[in-house]
Amino acid sequence: MEILSLTYMSSNIQSFVTTILRNQRINEFNHWRLENLILKLNLGATDLSNLDLSGALLNGVSCVGCNFSKSNLCRANLVQSDLSKANFEKSNMTSALMMYSDLSRCNMSHADLTGTNLMWSNLTHSDLTYCTLTRTILVESNLSQANFTGVDMSTAFLKYAKTDNLKKVAV
After folding, report:
1. DSSP string for residues in 84-151
2. pTM for the whole thing?
3. DSSP 8-45
4. What backbone phi and psi angles, to 5 degrees, belong to 132?
5. Model confidence over 3-40: pLDDT tens digits?
6. Tell me, what CATH number does 91's domain have?
7. Could you say which DSSP state residue 7 is in?
8. Which of 72, 75, 67, 65 is nearest to 51 (CA)?
9. What are the CA-CA distances from residue 140 to residues 36, 73, 102, 159 (Å)?
10. In terms of residue numbers, what domain contains 108?
11. Domain total of the chain
12. If both were cysteines, with which of 95, 126, 129, 170 could 115 make a disulfide (CB 3.0 to 4.6 Å apart)?
């Protein structure tokens, strides 16, 4: 019974996590995160815009509706995270790890996804207009009804990606 109570975040822990992320103390956050992997972090609709979160260990975190617009998420680990309805507009996600993540209904317009690994991710109904997909890995991702208007997909890896009703207007 004690283990179950530790797996969900208390409001004090949520406040602590939000504060150190907003203060861009990523090394401190990552150290804490590695010692508390059993906790199911829920950042809800937290505003994390305009921050340097590069290298943050946000794997498995629920960030439904979070605002990451104009943030630096280079090399961040967001594997198996729930990022549905999140805003990544104009963010830098170069070389981020986002495999198995739920990115449905996200705003990723004008984001830089160079070298980002989105293998097996769900991007249904997401807005990726004018984003950069240079060497982006989208293998077996669900891109159904996503908007790729103005995107050069020539160097993206799309093997076995589900592209039903994909909206793509030539660059």
Report:
1. TT-B-TT-B-TT-B-TT-B-TT-B-TT-B-TT-B-TT-B-TT-B-TT-B-TT-B-TT-B-TT-B-TT-
2. 0.91
3. B--HHHHHHHHHHHHTT-HHHHHHHHHH-TTSB-B-TT
4. -100, 125
5. 333 445 678 888 899 999 999 999 999 999 999 988 88
6. 2.160.20.80
7. S
8. 72
9. 31, 23, 13, 6
10. 1-171
11. 1
12. 95
